Predict the 3D structure of the following.
Amino acid sequence: MKLDRDWIPGPEDLDWIEAAAEPPIAPLLAIERAAEPERVPIVDRATGRVLAALAAGRRRIVEVGTAFGYSTLWLALGQPDGGSIVTIDPDRERTDRARGWWREAGIADDRITVVNAPALSAFAAGDAALAGPFDLAFVDALKPEYAAYVEELVPRLAPGALLLADNVLWSGRVAGPRGSAPADPDTEALRAFGPAVLRDTRFIATILPVGDGLLVGGYRG
């Protein structure tokens, strides 16, 4: 059968994938319900499923940007037994709520270490929890700081580690028409960030058009 190379997945295909998959556990659904009315940014469910799949076999994970711990929980659910996660976020109120949902999911407190500080400050302070080496790093925080996060993370990555970053398509704004007016700082930062990592010889990288755009890079070490 000849393939239609012009075909792209539509909403019905995404709905089929979701229906075929195991339903999310109750704490994930609880976070989804809490995040929307409070306008707390979390990855979409499809991206969460990708994070869980990529976390398989990754024992040490670092996450920049916790919010309500939705992506953290997907990563933890995908990790093997004995895995650990360090997640960074300055908002203690949010991360305390996240801890409650993780406990509901059966994730032991000692599996996830929360660093309550701005990420670049935490890295600069030499926090022992962030020493690495890490098998996977996930970035989903301040967009103008993405490039700086990567430079802090690289020395902390194990050879063969995965670097993941969310929002790199930014709801079409990164690739969309630019017009005569300058874009907002977040969009401009993401427009520079994606190509920089895709061309960075330290990584073998691509961008998956899932959710808001997920960059996936394998660290050459």
Summary: The longest strand covers residues 157-165. Residues 207 and 215 are 4 Å apart (CA to CA). The two ends are 41 Å apart (CA to CA). The first helix runs from residue 11 to 20.
